[in-house]
Design goal:
The chain has helices spanning 8-23, 25-29, 36-52, 55-77, 86-100, 102-105, 112-127, 142-155, 165-168, 179-198, 207-213. It is mainly α and 216 residues long.
Length: 216
Amino acid sequence: MTERPSGWELLAAVELMDRLRRDGPWEREQTHESLRRYLVEETYELLDAIDSGDRDHLLEELGDILLQVLFHARIAADRSGDPFDIDDVARAFTTKISARTQGVLSGNEIDLQTQLEEWETRKAAEKARGSVLDGIATGQPALALAQKLLERLTAAGFPDDLVPDAVRSVRVVADGPSVEDTLRAAVLRFMADIRVAEAAGPGPRTPEFWRTNLPR
């Protein structure tokens, strides 16, 4: 009996998703937007499985995440303009990761620090960000969004004292306003102010630049 290569079962998973999208009344109706909440739910369930340390639970939840990837790729294949499919997703993955890990893939020995530096250097070259905010996903939970923003600003040398208190801390009050909504609104306002400052003109984003151009 010939041993099947790793990844063989993925072909069956892709075929199953194709059939469900074609023949399933519910699957035919779904869009990227309608599946958003399921992706969020499945992500949290995967985190719970990781915390549990349960092998079977983790296996199941990873399968649910795989379903989301296959489903979104299959929906994208039906787009009327500029469609893509699961092969394009896999190709984009291998192209990006291969480019960022050339040191590892070269066959030469490489230490952790060198690998991390190579990753960040190549990632920065790919992104060519014009804004310190580029690439920050605003759809993530407010606390994660605030943390990501502060990490990005710290790396960019943004003055710590210019960060609003409303972004830096939250206050939980029984029967009070939603902490999620309150923090998200504060972070989005701060991000809008940062974009206003960046639009003031070119030049190095020094602490003095931010102090001069950030709306007060």
